[in-house]
Every structure is written in structure tokens, then in C-alpha cells.
Amino acid sequence: MRIYNSLTRKIEDFVPNEPGKVSMYTCGPTVYHYAHIGNLRTYICEDVLEKILRFSGYDVKRVMNITDVGHLASDADTGEDKMLKGAKREHKSVMEIASFYTDAFFSDCAKLNIRTPDIVEPATNLIPEFIHMVEALLEKGYAYKAGDNIYFDTSRLKEYYVFGNQNEEELMVGVRDDVSEDINKRNKNDFVLWFTKSKFEDQALKWESPWGVGYPGWHIECSCIGMKHLGDRMDIHCGGIDNMFPHHTNEIAQSEAYLGHKWCNYWFHVHHLNDETGKMSKSKGEFLTVSLLESKGYDPMVYRMFALQSHYRKPLTFSYDTLDQTAATYKKLKNRVLSVKADGQADEAEVKDWHDKFAQAVGNDCNTAMGITLLYDVLKSDLNGATKLKIIEDYETVLSLNLLKEDKKEETDDELTAYIEEKISERTQAKKDKDFAKADAIRDELKAKGIVIKDTREGVTWSRE
Questions:
Q1: What is the pLDDT of residues 55-80, one digit of tens each?
Q2: Residue 52 falls in which region: left (phi positive, over 0), alpha (psi -120 to 50) or beta
Q3: Cα–Cα distances in Å, from 264 out to 24, 53, 223, 256?
């Protein structure tokens, strides 16, 4: 297993802290709105990483947070809390918003065959742990109180920009109109560990703390949730590329200051899904969700395949034209798989050989496109049907494209029209033959299917009820 490590900026052999076991953390959603398909690309890729690790024989424990407090409209420390913003938009309480959109998120994940992590922890569950970490950072001299808020002091670190993707000039306050300077900070890249009521008077969720009534900063939740469930040494931390700075940078800063040693060995970042105008976001144009794609007639598996055909470290551009092409490809692939007859007995040696080929292909930095290519190679091979089907079933534990699942049979409009016209013709003949019982039975049969027929001077017409 080889994986690109954002921390070292190179592909490395994956070596877990404990042989055979993997501790894996995923940055979860801020549940103030539906997830758009750009967000879900990241979760698909993280799902695939977990499944590749399991496919390769590792025992994986995966943890994910749910951000239900503390994430401001800016990913720095400025702007309105996203949860409060969602509550105001829908005239509901913050916790009602959190519950509704948490359920919506996992519903979307289920449609995309994204496995639910072993542990899912809302941020609001761990307020005592957050307070304890802040107290410890204050005691160690890595934090300070200013303006009734608690800040992390980045000047105490030997290296802050651990991902090598930022510099002082890029952080100049005022470069963006939506960023205002926080005069309480000693250094412009310090960040808030705990807010008090002095910052936002209308904050919906507040807790007692040694520094006054307030609420945690966003960055601290992942550190505490990760440590609670995975211990103080983590193997893999995942997230979107936009989490790299400042969120993951700040996570590393506070976690390693608290622990006194390296926290996480591998950092896995998924690049953006763009539309033709740029990065996809909730504030731009049509809000692209899984439900919207379904309403336009797309199987969610088509979007999953769209994501798997590209590499997670490359930006992916979405358009309906490319999704239509993927839909056609997916339909042909699924039809080929479903046409394989389970003839003969599975050759276990071949199954093992093809398993190892797949593990090597997708284990090379999550190369899912190569995994799909191998699937086509299996279909084109001279293997008997039973062996092919067993290999495909094996591959599906990673790809999860429902290739072996029969679609529900639904009549197309053309088929339905032909059926109705045939029945109308039979009814007309029955009436000519004075077989009125049969004519009535045909009328009732159509009515049961939601079709109403009407006799007119021009002939028989029909409509849906």
C-alpha cells in the first residue's frame, strides 16, 4: 500500500503505528445545510481509501466528527457561526438544524454506498474535553487570554506552516473584503481555542468554562475527538484540500503542543470538484445535491463512478455532458456484468491472483481508475462465469457500484403506451364481439394501473389518473 502524504509532499509506503491495524480520522460535515456533490466527492474518496485498506487486510477503525457548533462562515475566526446561520434561515433551533442535516448527510452517503464510519461523534458531545485541552495549552504556555477569548500562540512553534502551502504575505489581513482584523491576537495567524460571549452576543449554544460562558473554536473539535477514540498517535487524517489550511494546520499545532510528540503520520487530501465556472460551493448557482441529480434521472451510482474514474489528487470538473457520458458507460458496464452466467466452478487460484492484481493497482495511491480498468480485463478474459462473478464481487467491496445488483424493472413510456394501445384494441374487439364482460375487465385492468379510457366520437382516448 502506497499513499501520497500531504505532510511530506510525496508518495510513501504506508506503515501503520500498529502492524495490521489502522486508525483513520475523517473531517465530517458542518450540518447547517445539505452536502453538495463537491463535498461528497471527498467522502467517496475517503470511503474508497478505507475500503482499499480493508481489502488489503488491515483492521480499520475510522472516526468522523459532526460539526454542530463553532464553525464560522470564514474558515478562519471571522463571521457568523454556520449553524446559527442555518437556524436563522429556516426559523428552527440550532439542534433541530443539526439533527435534520445530519440525517440528510447520511441519507446521501447511503445512496452513494459510502460506509458509515465506525464512530461518529458530534462536537457538542465533548465540551469538557475541549475545555481540558485549552487548560493544558494555557498551562504549557501555548495559549493566552485576550479580550476574554483564548487564543493559540503560533509564535511558540518551531514550524507552523507544516504543509508548506502558506506564507506570511498570503495571510495579510485586509486582502479579502470579508476578513476583518482581530485586534486581540498577538500574531495574525493565531487562532481561537475558546470564544466567550464578548465575541458574538447572539451565539445560540454556550457553555460554562473557567474563562466565562462561551463556546469552542472549530479547530479543537477534531483534535479532541480523534484523541478520545484513536489515542494520541493516529495513522491517517483525511479531508478536503481546503481543510489543509488553516484547519488541519491548526489541528497539528494544538495537538502536538498538547501531546508533546508527533500526532498523525499521514495526511490525505481530496482536491476540489469544480463546475465550469470554478470551485463548487453552496453559494453559487444551482445547488448540486444527490437529490437534485436523482430528480434529473441520474442513478447516484453514476456520480460515484464519475468520481472513481478520476484521481483524488486532481481537480475534477463537473458538467451534465460528462455525467451523461458516465451514465452511458455505467449502464453498459452493468449490463455486461449482469449478462455473465454463473457457469462452472470458481477457480480459487485465479480469484486470488486477480485479487492481488487489484490490491496492487488500487493500493498505488488509491488509483481507482486502474481498478475499473482491471474490472474490464476480468470481463474480457477467458475465465468461466463463476470465476468472473466471484472476482467482480471481490472488487465490488471497494468500488461499491452495485454492479451485481439487479435494477428494479420499470416500464418505459414507450412500453407502457404499446401495452395500453394493445389493451384498447382488445377491448374494441371484445365490444364488437358483444363480450362486454371482457371489455369491462380490460377497462378495470387499465384503471388499476392508473390509466383511464374514454369512448369518444373520434375513438378511444386514454389519460393517467
A1: 999 999 999 999 987 545 444 455 56
A2: alpha
A3: 10, 17, 10, 9
- DSSP code string of 232-298: S-EEEEEEEGGGIIIIIHHHHHHHHHHHSS--EEEEEEEPPEEETTEE--TTSSS---HHHHHHTT-
Residue 146 contacts residue 184 (beta carbons within 8 Å): yes
pTM listed for this prediction: 0.83
Where do we find the cell 475545555?
Answer: 131
Other beta carbons less than 10 A from residue 449's beta carbon: 13
pLDDT in tens, 377-411: 999 999 999 999 999 999 999 999 999 998 765 54
Q: Are residues 50 and 113 in the same domain?
A: yes
Q: For residue 10, list its beta bridge partners.
A: 5
* Residue 22 and residue 363 in contact, taking contact as beta carbons nearer than 8 Å: no
Is 319 a domain residue? yes
CA-CA distance, 406 to 429, in Å (whole number)? 38
Cα radius of gyration rounded to whole Å, the chain: 28
- Asked if 294 contacts 281 with a C-beta cutoff of 8 angstroms, the reply is no
Indicate if 284 and 366 belong to the same structural domain.
yes
Distances (CA, A) of 209 to 144, 149, 150, 199, 387: 15, 11, 11, 15, 62
Element (H, E) at 175: none
Number of domains composing the chain: 3
**CA quadruple 340, 341, 343, 345: dihedral sign:** positive
